[in-house]
Amino acid sequence: MKAAYLKAKNQFEIREVEVREPEAGEVLVGVKACGFCGHDKILAGYAGEEWQPFGHEFAGVVEKVGHGVKNVKVGDRVVVETSIFDPISDYARNGHPELDTEGPNYMTMEHTGMGFAEKTIVPAILCVPFTDLEDREACFLEPMGVAADLILTADIHLGQDVLLMGCGAIGLMALQMAKASGARNIYVAEHKANQKKIELAKQFGATDVILTDEMELTDYPFPRGGVDRVLVTTPPVTIAEAVKVANVGGIVAFLGISYGPGAMVTFDSNIVHLNKLQIRGSNAIPALYFPHCLDLVKAGIVDVKPLITHTFPLEKAPEGIMEFLTDKAHAVKAVMLNE
């Protein structure tokens, strides 16, 4: 079968590889749609030192099942969670499954092909059946779960003012969720070159867009002097700016990730201390909230279709991804389609 591989710096190729039979508790999924995510971009940009398969935001059809699989059957349309909690872990048994990161994990398996492939082996427990959605919509459920975790971590209340830093696909889904959660004003901080992201932020109800190449966040005239919640989807270094615009008692929730020196952050601890701020990390491992996210899409509360700006078939993935990476003005989300 065909599978896409990547390596830094921004090298992509299609390989012919073998896919094994599913073992007990596993299924073989024929991939129908897979999104190119921020973590894939980091791996391709600098962190992927060796050639590796990639892609974990995908939907497809179950083609084979291993022994003992009962939750799905051949022919089921499924979207795949990247991981799940261990139901017999201490965390789960104490009522906090969201804290258990040691359950089955698609990302840590040995793969010849992942989401950017014709087929891939998946633990059956990670498969969530769905109907009434296009595959290109369903593949957003994994990053939508990330956005949902960010929103829940931020604990947005009715009438609060929110700042969203970065409006990529996850940020734009979080914006829609923040609005549905009752946020009064939602401000978006973004670079002016990212025209499509800015357009969509306004379409989804952003109060205003702050162009960070032209203005410091601390210079923006927030009506209440600052904001009650900050959602950071940009690199961790921006947390230092986030704490400067948070109101007393505010929460800064972040999910941006970097490796190496970029993971280190310096901020003014006196601001955090004296203003009684909280800095909360959002980590969507285990992957949760897929049924909830399905409902949000079906109810029209979160609209994912406008986020898709680039599509291509698997065999054209190297060219399609490079076009996406270089199209700064229009790129929001690239989706590979096996149709």
UniProtKB/TrEMBL annotation:
Alphabetical list of InterPro entries matching this protein: ADH-like_C, ADH-like_N, ADH_Zn_CS, ER, GroES-like_sf, NAD(P)-bd_dom_sf, Zn_alcohol_dh
UniProtKB keywords: Metal-binding, Oxidoreductase, Zinc
Enoyl reductase (ER) domain span: 7-336
Cofactor: Zn(2+)
Gene3D superfamilies (alphabetical): Medium-chain alcohol dehydrogenases, catalytic domain (3.90.180.10), NAD(P)-binding Rossmann-like Domain (3.40.50.720)
PANTHER family: L-THREONINE 3-DEHYDROGENASE (PTHR43401)
Protein family per UniProt: Belongs to the zinc-containing alcohol dehydrogenase family.
Name of the molecule in the record: Alcohol dehydrogenase catalytic domain-containing protein
Organism, scientific name: Laedolimicola ammoniilytica
